[in-house]
Write a structure and sequence with these properties.
By secondary structure, the chain is an alpha/beta fold. It has 13 helices and 13 strands.
Length: 342
C-alpha cells in the first residue's frame, strides 16, 4: 500500500507506476494548517480536522472535499487497510505538510500498537537544484527518474516521529523548542521542516507571522487583484539558489492564504491591516488593499498584537490575548512569552 499527500501527488504517482486506484491511499488533510489537538481517539480527532476544512471552504467560496466517498481512497476512511496491509510505503517531499504526514502515520501506528516494521519511506530531495516540496509538483516521468532509495524506520526514527508529533500538538510550544534544540541527525528533513512552526508565531517586533507579512507585502505591490496577491505569496520563497531558506518548506495552499488575508481585513479588529471587498465572495471576486495601519505595521512602526490582540492557532497552541496582553512571540528563532516591543 502506498500513501501520498494530496490528489495531485497521488494522480501523478499512479500514472508513473501504472497502479490501480486501490493501491494508493491519499491524505487530503493539510496537517500543517488548523488546530492539531492531542490525539486520544481517531473518530473525534478526524471529525474535528475535517470539520475545520469543510467550514473554511464554505466561508471562503471553495468546494469542500468529498471525504466520505470510498472510491476516493481517503486515508481517514481506510484505517482497516492501513492496519492490515503487508507493507506501507510513505512517499514524501520536504515540505512541512509532507513531513507531518510521515510523523502522523508513525504516531498512528504506535498509538494503536500496529506493526511499525512494515513502514517504508521514500524521501524525495532535489530535482535539478530545486527542492522537491511534494510529489504533486513532479510529473510522472520525474517521479520515476528521481525515485529515491527507500529506508525503513528504526527505533530512533520512530521515537523522533512520536516526539515531533507530540511537540506540535501540545498547548504550549516548549516541547517543540526543546526538540528543535536537540543535536540529532535523525530524520533531518522532518526537523528542518518543523522550524517553520516558529515563523507561524507573531514577530515580537511587529506582531506579524511570516506568512501574514508576505501577504501584506504583496498586497502593497499587487492590490487590488487578490488572486495575484495570493499567487505571488505562493511563489514568494521558491528560490532554489538559497539553500538556507526554510520558508519554501511551508506550503499551505491558496485556501489557507486567502483565509489569512481576510482575517487581517475583519471589521471586528480595532485596526484592520487590509480591506477586502466583498468579504463574502470567492477569491477572484475579492478586491484587496493595504490600510495605512497595515503599512505602519509592515514598516515596523506598530505591533499589530499590541493594538488588536490575537486569536490564532498554531498546531496545538491557541494564542488568545487582548490588546497589550502577553502571548507567545517569535524573537529570531526563539519563542518567548511576553509583550510585543512596540
Amino acid at each position: 500500500m502506498h500513501i501520498l499527500n494530496g490528489d495531485s501527488a497521488a494522480n501523478s504517482f499512479r500514472q508513473a507506476f501504472h497502479l490501480q486506484r486501490g493501491e494508493v491511499l491519499i491524505c487530503r488533510d493539510i496537517l500543517s494548517c488548523g488546530f492539531l489537538d492531542t490525539f486520544v481517539d481517531l473518530e473525534p480527532w478526524r471529525s474535528q480536522r475535517l470539520g475545520h476544512w469543510d467550514e473554511m471552504c464554505k466561508q471562503h467560496g471553495f468546494q469542500p472535499p468529498e471525504w466520505q466517498d470510498p472510491a476516493l481512497r481517503d486515508l481517514y476512511q481506510c484505517m482497516y487497510e492501513l492496519e492490515h496491509a503487508e507493507t506501507i510505503n510513505i512517499w514524501v517531499g520536504r515540505a512541512l505538510s509532507d513531513q507531518l504526514l510521515l510523523a502522523f502515520i508513525v504516531y498512528l501506528f504506535k498509538f494503536y500498537n500496529w506493526d511499525t516494521s512494515k513502514l517504508c519511506v521514500y524521501q524525495y530531495h532535489q530535482a535539478e537544484k530545486i527542492t522537491v516540496l511534494g510529489l504533486g509538483l513532479l510529473n510522472p516521468e520525474e517521479i520515476i527518474r528521481l525515485k529515491p532509495q527507500p529506508f525503513s524506520l528504526g527505533a530512533k526514527e520512530i521515537d523522533f516521529c512520536i516526539e515531533a508529533w507530540n511537540s506540535i500538538t501540545q498547548p504550549i510550544p516548549e516541547q517543540l523548542m526543546a526538540l528543535l534544540a536537540e543535536e540529532t541527525t535523525c530524520l533531518p528533513n522532518l526537523k528542518r521542516a518543523l522550524r517553520n512552526y516558529l515563523y507561524r508565531y507573531p514577530s515580537i517586533d511587529n506582531g506579524l507571522s511570516y506568512i501574514d507579512s508576505v501577504i501584506l507585502r504583496h498586497t502593497q505591490s499587487h492590490a487590488p487583484n487578490t488572486a495575484r496577491i495570493i499567487g505571488y505569496t505562493l511563489a514568494h520563497d521558491m528560490n532554489p539558489q538559497n539553500t538556507e531558506n526554510i520558508h519554501e518548506l511551508d506550503t499551505v495552499g491558496d485556501l489557507y492564504l486567502f483565509s489569512r488575508l481576510k482575517k487581517m481585513a475583519q471589521d471586528s479588529l480595532n485596526n484592520s491591516l487590509l480591506t477586502a471587498h466583498p468579504l463574502d465572495k470567492p477569491l477572484r471576486e475579492t478586491r484587496s488593499e493595504i490600510t495605512e495601519f497595515g503599512k505602519s505595521v509592515l514598516n515596523g512602526k506598530h505591533n499589530v498584537v499590541t493594538f488588536n490582540g490575537i486569536n490564532d492557532v498554531i498546531g496545538g497552541v491557541e494564542l488568545i490575548a487582548g490588546p497589550g496582553e502577553q502571548t507567545w512571540y517569535r524573537n529570531g528563532e526563539r519563542l518567548i512569552f511576553g509583550e510585543g516591543r512596540i
